[in-house]
Amino acid sequence: QLHLQESGPGLVKPSETLSLTCTVSGGSVSSSSYYWGWIRQPPGKGLEWIATIYHSGSTYYNPSLKSRLSISVDTSKNQFSLRLSSLTAADTAVYYCARLAGRYYSDYWGQGSLVIVSS
Amino acid sequence: DIQMTQSPSSVSASVGDRVTITCRASQTIISWLAWYQQKPGKAPKLLIHGASTLQSGVPSRFSGSGSGTDFTLTISSLQPEDFATYYCQQTNSFPLTFGGGTKVEIK
Question: Cβ distance B79 to B15 under 8 Å?
Answer without folding.
Answer: yes
